[in-house]
Amino acid sequence: MTKTLISNAPGAATTLEQIKEIINEKSVELLHLQFVDIEGILKHVTVTIEQLEDVVEGKMMFDGSSIKGFSPINKSDLYLQPDLATFAVLPWTVENGYSEARFLCSVKNPDGSLFEGDTRNVLKKTVDRAAEHGYTISVGPELEFFLFKTDENGYATQELGDKAGYFEPSPHDLGERVRLEIYRALKAMGFTIEASHHEV
Which domains does the chain have, with CATH numbers? Predict the structure, then answer.
């Protein structure tokens, strides 16, 4: 298991001009417009960089009836409104000098109102409601997982990748390199990592 505490780092690109500079510098080709369904599963619509202006203006439509728990077929048109402060180049997509990036998005109805089934909108309302009563909400996620060995076809087995214990280093901890890759990817995306180690 891994324990990695992260927090969003300040200084991220928040204006369209800053985002365009990064897009040119990193040769971004594709944009992933990400949102979360009612079960907490990440979803995304991928568009080309040429559609950036439409993306920022919230003109990217998707079929909400295809997302579990979102909309019936007769009210399926929903739109994605990106949060510019969440723009990030995805480090693991860099290949041959090109890369991909993502925005976290809120889901909106065709009339521009917030879609009630969007978990991001629900969270924002909850944060605002807490603030009205003098409270702030802080989140410290711990990304914990198991690493399993794979079979000859590359599929995960039920056999754990190592038998190490709490805080053990390599060679007992065979996941050290994986956590290093995760750390570097998160750091490149603007996160501050508090700790990364083998758990129990």
Answer: 11-120 (3.10.20.70)
**pTM score of the predicted model:** 0.80
For residue 23, the model assigns a pLDDT of 96
β-bridge partners, 35: 43
Measured between alpha carbons, how far is 104 from 102 in angstroms, rounded to an integer? 7
Identify the CA nearest to 33 among candidates 80, 75, 69, 71. Answer: 80
User: Rounded CA gap, 126 and 128, in Å?
Assistant: 5
User: In this predicted model, what pLDDT tens digit does every residue of 133-152 receive, in sequence order?
Assistant: 999 998 888 888 999 999 99
Residue of 81, 104, 79, 93 whose CA lies nearest to 29: 93
pLDDT < 50 positions in the chain: 1-11
Say if CB 32 and CB 44 are below 8 A apart. yes
